[in-house]
Design a protein that fits this description.
The complex is a heterodimer of chains A (335) and B (296). Chain A is built from 14 helices and no strands. Chain A is an all-alpha fold. Chain B is mainly α and 296 residues long. Helix content of chain B is 73%, strand content 0%. Chain B has helices spanning 2-16, 19-28, 31-48, 50-53, 85-121, 123-137, 141-152, 156-182, 186-193, 198-234, 247-251, 263-290. Classes of the chains: A mainly alpha (335), B mainly alpha (296).
């Protein structure tokens, strides 16, 4: 097991190295550069050259890359070429917003997806199962941005019961930022009203972001439970007189959840991409929209470091998934 | 004599129903595949006959009649420029389907070549390709597509390439996986033992048996390609000429007018959902038809 984890961790090194190179090359391929954003399209050639020189963009590409890597290895992600703010500061301010939203979405997806999957699997072939299957297919097919818009229209405009954008009501609650997790900060500030308000702001974006993972988790759970239901050991367990609940929990779920764990890991990665869209619709100050804006502004430093951090998180989540998978499945553990 | 002569070809015909004939027969029995196929045919016909179906020129605006709600004259209402939303959705199917098909074709081709190289040669070629695949997969797909479109430009071909790049590692991984599983299959070993090697072994014996999962994935990738293209359009990275009808771009900015003109978001959104659902249903039906494990 330890060997397995060490091998997987070592494998991360070439991936992350390749990633930095890939992102670096990509930023330099983008037409235009930060100097264009800072000075505008009509700047004189001399001014452009001056700005490029001050940003170090006039130096050969490999030097720029090695300088970037040198900083990275010392834990320095650099400064934004445009705002001159420390990229780490910006990231740490926005990232909790994305995590908070993604967590809410994945918790919703798991909490609803697994029970629905088990429920439809045990009623396989009935109209409940058919209806569930159709609903889950529709759930997979709705683009996040369309679902977000419709949720907003229904629950914030037609029946205004939930807030339509932002992370908290800034007029009524002043919450000092400590962790940048709005719900946590509200609790730290001793504002139960603010905590509830922050939760209310989470509902619509989390529903929009969580629906596709919900449908995927439900489908995979259903398929996986159906597989296990046919196993001999389930029949044996029933035959030896165990209660249904015991068989469900000990024999069926424990075995059926293996593939579900993998899918949850993959979906977490997709959430980070979907966050760009959700954050746009619900004006959620997260990291997805931040990187998107950096691509538009050609802010090399933010793109390089921001994408790297997102990728690192994706890779780590999947590493954790693989490890827990190995932990749950003795056949992988011992191979 | 005559009886035997007649029955022989019939027997041969039955035997020659291979994987594909069998799969097609199963698909005809699958409601998912039939409904999905019908939806896709509907959209393909819509794209082909767009000029005959659409009541208005999709690019012509009339500022005097902007933001009209759905009516007998404008089935799905009009937008800011007074363009007919119904006609724009009909013409928009061309771009959406075109980009989807183009991107999946590119993705499957490049991904298969990489996957075949990795799965067939193993060794350092395999290691290099698969590490590259890991790197690509660690970047959120939409972000990668955004970056590629910002680099190459916003034309239909460029958008298709951007979406294809997201798909390449997925196809490579699938084909490599199927090929690896086949390496120890009896008929592959048999072919090797009678001296079949190199490209012939790969192309004649292994690929045809590894291609099923790839085709299922390609169909499902058409669904995600439709979503990705629409997402790019929604973020303002669709076709550069705002008059060009594109479903995702039609949804862009509508969140500002939701209170007064929800039809601007609703109808293009439904078109996207239907097209995506069609490809997903078809892919699901195909998976059941092609995967022997799922057969009852």
């Amino acid at each position: 097991m330890t060997k397995f984890i060490i091998r997987r961790l070592l494998l991360l090194i070439p991936i992350l190295l390749g990633l930095t190179l890939l992102i670096f090359v990509f930023t330099r391929l983008l037409p235009g550069d930060p100097a264009t954003t800072i000075l505008g399209e009509r700047a004189t050639a001399e001014n452009m050259a001056l700005v490029r020189e001050s940003l170090g963009l006039d130096r050969p590409l490999h030097e720029q890359y090695f300088q970037y890597m040198g900083g990275l290895l010392q834990g320095d992600l650099g400064r934004s070429f445009i705002t001159n703010r420390d990229v780490v500061d910006d990231f740490l301010q926005r990232f909790p917003a994305t995590i908070e939203l993604s967590l809410a979405a994945i918790i919703f997806a798991i909490a609803a997806g697994i029970p629905l999957g088990v429920y439809t699997a045990k009623r396989r072939g009935t109209w409940v199962d058919a209806g569930g299957t159709i609903l889950s297919l529709i759930g997979i097919s709705i683009p996040i941005f369309f679902l977000g818009l419709m949720l907003k229209w229904i629950f914030a405009i037609q029946f205004p019961i939930l807030p339509d954008s932002g992370r908290i009501d800034l007029v009524n609650y002043f919450i000092p930022r400590v962790t940048n997790f709005m719900t946590v900060d509200a609790l730290i500030a001793g504002e139960p009203g603010g905590f509830i308000d922050a939760l209310r702001h989470l509902v619509l974006p989390a529903l929009a972001l969580g629906t596709i993972p919900l449908a995927v988790i439900m489908r995979i759970t259903r398929a996986s439970v159906i597989d296990v239901l046919n196993e001999d050991y389930v029949r044996t367990a029933h035959a030896k007189g165990l209660r249904d609940r015991t068989v469900d929990g000990r024999h069926i779920l424990r075995n059926a959840l293996l593939p579900v764990v993998t899918v949850i890991g993959l979906q977490t990665g997709l959430l980070l991409g979907g966050a760009i869209l959700t954050e746009t619709i619900f004006t959620w100050g997260g990291v997805g929209r931040w990187i998107y804006d950096a691509v538009t502004a050609r802010d090399y430093q933010i793109i390089q470091s921001g994408v790297l951090m997102l990728a690192l998180i994706f890779v780590l989540v999947n590493l954790i998934v693989d490890i827990s998978y190995a932990f749950l499945n003795p056949r992988i553990r011992h191979s | 004599m005559t009886g035997a002569a007649v029955s022989q070809p019939v027997e041969q015909q039955e035997r020659s129903v291979g994987l594909w004939g069998d799969a097609l027969r199963r698909m005809r029995g699958s409601p998912a595949a039939i409904i999905g196929g019908a939806i896709i045919i509907f959209f393909v016909l819509m794209a082909i006959f767009a000029p005959f179906i659409a009541p208005y020129d999709p690019t012509r605006g009339d500022l005097g009649s902007s933001y009209l709600p759905p009516s007998g004259e404008h089935f799905f209402g009009t937008n800011v420029q007074g363009q007919d939303v119904f006609s724009r959705i009909i013409f928009g199917s061309r771009l959406t389907l075109g980009i989807a098909v183009m991107s999946v074709t590119i993705g499957v081709t490049v991904g298969s070549v990489l996957g075949a190289l990795a799965g067939y040669f193993r060794g350092w070629i395999d290691a290099t390709i698969m590490r590259g695949v890991d790197i690509m997969l660690s970047i959120p797909g939409l972000l990668l597509a955004i970056a590629v479109v910002s680099w190459l430009g916003r034309g239909a071909v460029q958008i298709a390439i951007a979406i294809a790049i997201v798909n390449v590692p997925i196809f490579a991984r699938i084909l490599r996986g199927s090929l690896l599983a086949l390496r120890d299959a009896d008929y592959v070993i048999a072919a090797k033992s009678v001296g079949v090697g190199g490209p012939a072994l790969l192309l004649r014996h292994m690929l045809p048996n590894a291609i099923g999962p790839l085709i299922v994935q390609a169909t499902l990738a058409l669904a995600t390609a439709v979503v990705d293209a629409a997402a790019l359009g929604f973020l303002g990275l669709g076709p550069p000429d705002p008059r060009t009808p594109e479903w995702g771009a039609m949804l862009s900015d509508t969140y500002r007018y939701l209170t007064d003109a929800v039809h601007l978001a609703f109808f293009p959104g439904i078109a996207i959902v239907l097209a995506v659902l069609g490809f997903n249903l078809l892919g699901d039906g195909m998976r059941e038809a092609l995967d022997p494990k799922l057969r009852r």
